[in-house]
Design goal:
single chain, 328 residues, alpha/beta, Rossmann fold, 11 helices, 17% strand, AB_hydrolase_fold, AB_hydrolase_3, hydrolase
């Protein structure tokens, strides 16, 4: 699709004064690896630069984390997964994690340190899922893999299950939560990090932050079209969980959105809808942060505080608790 290159070039004029110096530095370091016009590159090149960017920000695994790479049998193919455990403890629950990357880039390596830190901080086993990517595999391939991996974890583990994912991975985690509600292995909770949840791209943040640093409306339209194969998926909750007309019966939900992110309204609408349907959900808008700030958790105070809230929510859901005194 044709893209407008002007917004990416001008984000500093619109946002520089609203961002902390360390967040601005993080954005600039990210763009040095993964340029704002990356969606104009070939898919192969996008994956190469994304993986290089992930390596730039990687901090390694905490001491005492062991991993096992294996495969989920999905019938016609296998889904690679990486299992993380702490050497010194028996896990209290299992986190099924889906990585971000617009359904086009990312994999087990791009979020390896994130998963290892979740495992270390929560006393949970973590299973990271390497679902199939677009454009080679359009919807519902990624969702099918996400669900198959969740079911595999459910069959092979007697532990409570917590869903987690960032960006595109947050979309998949939510879609799996919708698919598994009411089942014998429904999740104990879901923790979504700046997730993409809608199809129509409606809400305040889409208007106010259409040209935000790190993610723009142009990017979102590109990812939507490439994942859908240019088809109309507007009514499918497996593609856009906000399309589900029934948000009742979903697990306890924590959503962390970034203030300067067009996707922020998705998290707000989703949590509001769950609460209106009688469920428990909290939406936390991380002030002064941008999409993708998970990689800045060791570089900026704000991102580190955001990650600490994510860890706390995962730990609470794993223990069958609510992370706050009351639903907010």
């Amino acid at each position: 699709m044709e893209r407008n290159d002007a917004p990416e070039a001008s984000w500093r004029e619109a946002y520089a004064a609203r961002l902390d110096a360390d967040v601005r530095t993080f954005i600039e370091e990210t763009e040095a690896c993964y340029p704002p016009d990356a969606a104009d590159l070939t898919v192969e090149r996008q994956r190469t630069v994304y993986d290089a960017m992930a390596r730039t920000f990687a901090v390694g695994r905490p001491v005492g984390i062991v991993t096992n790479d294996t495969f989920v049998d999905a019938g016609s193919h296998t889904v690679p997964v990486r299992v993380y455990d702490r050497e010194d403890t028996t896990p209290q629950a299992c986190v099924v994690f889906y990585h971000g990357g617009g359904f086009v880039v990312g994999g087990l390596e791009s979020h390896d340190d994130v998963c290892a830190e979740i495992c270390a901080a929560t006393r949970c086993r973590v299973v990271s899922v390497d679902y199939r990517l677009s454009p080679e595999h359009v919807h519902p391939a990624a969702f099918d893999d996400a669900l198959d991996a969740y079911d595999w974890v459910g069959r092979t583990s007697g532990l409570p299950l917590v869903l987690c994912g960032d960006s595109a991975g947050g979309n998949l985690a939510a879609a799996v939560a919708h698919a598994k509600r009411g089942s014998s292995r429904e999740p104990a909770g879901q923790v979504l990090i700046y997730p993409s949840l809608g199809f129509e791209m409606e809400g305040r943040s889409y208007r106010e932050h259409a040209n935000a640093p790190m993610l723009t409306m142009d990017d979102l339209l590109f990812y939507r079209e490439i994942r859908s194969g240019n088809g109309d998926r507007s009514g499918e909750p497996t593609f856009a969980p906000l399309a589900d007309g029934n948000l009742a019966g979903l697990p306890p939900t924590f959503v962390a959105s970034a203030e300067f992110d067009p996707l922020a309204s998705d998290g707000e609408r989703y949590c509001q809808g769950i609460r209106e349907a009688g469920g428990r959900a909290i939406w936390f808008e991380d002030v002064g942060l941008v999409h993708g700030h998970l990689r800045a958790r060791h570089r900026t105070v704000r991102a580190g505080e955001s990650f600490a809230r994510v860890i706390a929510a995962i730990g609470a859901f794993a223990a069958g608790e609510w992370p706050y005194a009351k639903p907010v």
